[in-house]
Amino acid sequence: MVRNLIKLEILKRVRSTSFARSAAIGVFVFFIGIFLLGYLFLFGLVLNSLVKNILEKDDAIHFINSCLLYFFLLELIYRYFIQQLPVISLGSFLHLPLAKSHIIHFLLGSSFISPLNIISLLVFGPFALMEIKPLFGVGPASIWLTAVVLTSWSIHWFILWFKQRFEDSLIGTLAVFTTLLISLGANYLGLYDLGAFFEPVFTFALESPVPVFLLLTLVILSYFLCFAFYRQNAYLEELSEREHLQFANKNLGFLSKFGLAGEMANLEWKLIIRHKKSRTYLMLCLIFLLYGLIFYNNPAYQSATGFSYSFIFVGTFITGIFMLQYGQLFLSWNSPVFDFYVHQKNGLKALVRGKYLLFTGISLMSFVLSIPYVYFGWDVLLIHLATFLFNIGVTMHLVIYLALWKPKPMDLNKGSMFNYEGMGLSQFLMFIPLVAAPYAVFLPFAFWFGDYAGLLAMSIVGLFGILIFRKVSTSVAEKVLENKYEISSAFRQEL
């Protein structure tokens, strides 16, 4: 049966109309993956020297054991966003006369074939060979490495259960980030060190194989937890009904005050929280709110007079990352139902203005949430205010104008990682003028009149763009109307 299921998967991919493009993208992603895995292996080779020479730790093994927990928390993060759920083809098999348990075992087994499952081996394998083996021998080094790998594999099965259980809400993402931030924050403030608490587990693996048996039991239990949940919920009618109920009341009621454009913005919001790819872009706003911590407190970016000009770049991204990422696929998000808007009275105009409204609202939210950066100085707050106004008055219009150049269709049900549907040459080149535009206004005034004059110039230009907002948004809507048949024809192409 397994052979037949594999054959069906191969035939589905080969017979797809987009097989050639998917194969080309697959080859490209394969080489990128090999490249990244190679870097991880090189990192593993120098890990021992890094700990002893750079971090100046005398006992590298004890230090690594105390840091393993944070590595696994980091693994929890990247697996949550990168690891794909093995349920994409579930609906293709449930109606067949096959045992449901066999189908679930096949899907879960196929999900395990992933480069993510060898990252821990590449990073810590050289360390076990170069540092642990000379001191403790081959046996303890093998047991220690096995314990690390088994922990990573248990996370694999846990994430499959966790994502399927919480993916249709923001609870899962917030829980993952909260766990990591609390752990790192508590360690930084000296409240407690979770890594030191779990360090004896891996140290004990150097003395006894007991941790390996315990972790192997954990891997088996996590697998069957995942299996039981998938088997219990593997009903098409249950899945569709649950999705409908979960998103039935996800409204932003205050948007109705803005008329038809507000209703379209409300629909766009439902689209964002309903699909994993668009939700990822929304989560990037929260991630990039922490972007300033890399720059604002870093001595390398401090200036004796005024502030570092790189802060303009940081402020632009913190207050405008959503419109930059989500807006670059301005109409592609609506490609499956674009014909619906075409045939509605004022449908396209309302869609465009609704997107403007949503971009403005989320950018305003990002600016408000970034106000605590005033802790690093009033300069930072002024930079965020100037970049926010510039983003709303100028950058947003640039994003939308550039996104209207030959938009491409996309499938909203696919993940965001290594998925380039909807992306064209304009989307890749878009960031050049968007990053350069704030500096084009800021630098001349900063050079002649000072840094704060540059911020004032950015704010004035942004306010002017806000004043002519209606005229510019109408121009964009008219451009969409002018090219609606060409855009609609492009969106009807099969993915």
From TrEMBL:
Alphabetical list of InterPro entries matching this protein: DUF5687
Upper lineage: Bacteria, Pseudomonadati, Bacteroidota, Cytophagia, Cytophagales
Organism of origin: Cyclobacterium lianum
Keyword terms, alphabetized: Membrane, Transmembrane, Transmembrane helix
Record flagged with keyword Membrane: yes
Annotated transmembrane regions: 21-43, 63-82, 103-129, 141-162, 169-190, 210-230, 280-297, 309-333, 354-375, 381-404, 425-446, 452-469
UniProt keyword annotation of Flavoprotein present: no
One Pfam family linked to the record: DUF5687
The protein's name in its UniProt record: ABC-2 type transport system permease protein
